[in-house]
What does this fold into?
Amino acid sequence: MKSEVNLNSESAFDLKLWQKGKLKNFSSTPFAKTPFSEYWSDLPDVVNKHKTIDPYLFSHRMALGKYLIENTGGTQIWGEHYEQHWFWAYLAQLDWQRRSGRFEDPATWDKDEVYQWNENNPEKDVISEQSWWGYMNSKFIVATYLGAAEAGVVPRVQLKRNNLFSKDPAFLQCVSIWKEFWGGPHAKFLEETKTCSKLDNNAILFSHIWETHSNIMHAGVNSSVAVALCNRLPRDDRSIGLGWCNMVELLASMNYFVLTLDALYDVGGGFLPTIRVAGNNSSEFLRTNSINEFITLKNLHNLEKMSETSLKNAASFLGRVAHWKYGRRCLPVTLNTATYSRNPVKISFAVFNVITLAALPHSFLEGSIW
It folds into this structure.
């Protein structure tokens, strides 16, 4: 069964709604308010028809992701339109990186320009080989698919520009890491979900996803190719990228569950900067026109500067909160409130809530309370 959804005439991608969440409160067809609605039904069938993938085309990467969502468990596991599949957040990242202009060669970025996404750009499908963002993303889309293929989960495909991947030790390491995930924890999850609570089993799967994600991140970001490409980025956008890499450690510590499309509908895709930051004009534009994105930019810059010890301490703190099922469920909204709210009462309550859960010991009694 395909994951097509009903798109009607009143529907169109709504960036602000997508960022904030609660899409189901505003639309009977929430998928139509997501960025995926603009191209989902038009993606090429790269696995069954093309069988040769160009990893430096956005549409081919997105099509690989679509295939993984539709062919790694079925609707009984992931819902009628696969909206409970964990891979949606990876595709949301892929879309954000393209839409914000980060897949273009940094050598072409104008530091005095405020980037604007142009749907009519004839090069909109191209991912530059000089893009650090594109290189890192390949570890989370292309390597993910190839790892699943090596595990026997999906059909094998051929890669164009294969020399860029076959000679990259970091990429090959990532394929092996994903192969182990698909053949191990993911296969076990599918088998055990037949006989036990999917909700409890999800938490176990997500912990394996984050462990895998962290391993992939470290393998990619520390490679010589990534370091060289990262150095080509403007300073501010480089800090966003490296700060986001550190953010992964915090998300992993929380066993962050906002990976499914259902969760993205509810919590939102977040306020990652929707324009690449090549100079001061970009930062000032965000400060003036999208304060939440500007706050995210500053937070990512701070994360990039955070020492390893401070990062571990922060991860440990959030991990204590996430030991509570209630805390893990509420943490995304709580952190959004503490970060972006203008209401001091709401901020104080959110901070108190987090500190309280971190201070209290996890109890078996929680199951009967929540």
Notes: Residues 214 and 248 are 7 Å apart (CA to CA). Residues 6-10, 363-370 have pLDDT under 50 and may be disordered.
